[in-house]
Amino acid sequence: MDNENILISGASIAGPALAYWLTRYGFRPTVVERTPALREGGYKLDIRGKAVEVVERMGILADIRQVSTGMKEGTFVDRNGKAVVSMSAEFFNSRQEQDDEVMRTDLSRIIYERTRSDVEYLFNDSITSITEGQNGVAVTFERGKPRVFDLVIGADGIHSNVRRLVFGDESRFLHNLGAYISIFTAPNFLDLDRQELYYYAPGKFVSLFSAQDRSKAMSFFFFSSPPLSHDYRNIEQQKGLLTSFFSGDGWQIPRLLKDVWDAPDFYFDSVSQIHMDRWSAGRIALLGDAAYCPSPASGQGTSLALIGAYVLAGELALASGDYTTAFTRKRQKAPGFSQGDRWRRKPAAAGRPPSLDRRQSLC
């Protein structure tokens, strides 16, 4: 096997999932993550269609079922909190067959626990430079010593550091869809039990739900807006933007806007997609949201990340580490892969790379 030593940037979902498959196929992955530990927080994640088969082959489907949100119903309310209409969670979210839903924190933890004994994780560090040479990629870090890897994979999200260093400024690839979202934990002051409430106003809406842990609730804010000038890492600035856009709105919004200032897991970003003509350059490639973010509104990001990790590792294994062949095959299949659920064939046997036909249907 060639090119066994692989650096992955990002320890959310795509990165550890790729590390799992690479390890299984005999590679030696290292995962670098800028946060001091696994990042807490995040919203509900859909695991849909063939991504369910991927997590089953990873041996984590039972773990996911155990921490499933188990949502019962969704209810639309007016500005006074009066119920307008209710429907089952399954109907509202259009789930089919074995589809499931899990909190981002839980899925991240499950995959990390499956890989931590076999994968080198470098927390509280980040890549500062990437220089490709004939025999490898020289990488420098904010804190760690410089190292050389055979390949580098950027699985570090919509604001990918690897993409910026190798492919250029994100303004070339990020397409703002004219909206923003914010997610944060709040006290479960309405005593919700696997129930989600939705409040709509012109150009904006807010939802609030509680899943397994009834001591807390998760809030989701959405509003339409032209592109805003803000620093995606300046949390205090983002909280100010959110409160200004929702100031004066009804329902429980005033209470939630007070809670936002104490939220331990505040998230704010544009609803955007990543469009790229190519996801690889030499020994460096991108995966998941870093390469083809479909936007949070699609509900497909997690499934695409899980399937993409499976495909990329399988191509590298099938090519015995020949990254040129593996990246080319994945790139050739990219148009179908963006539709996510075109994987229709039976999974290959555990312990070996998927067949070529299998990966064609996946992509």
UniProtKB/TrEMBL annotation:
It comes from the Bacteria. Residues 331-363 are annotated as: Disordered. Coiled coil: none annotated. Transmembrane segments: none annotated. One of its GO terms (molecular function) is FAD binding. Residues 6-318 form the FAD-binding domain. InterPro entries: FAD-bd (IPR002938), FAD/NAD-bd_sf (IPR036188), FAD_aromatic-hydroxylase (IPR051704). This is 2-polyprenyl-6-methoxyphenol hydroxylase-like FAD-dependent oxidoreductase. It comes from Thermosporothrix hazakensis.
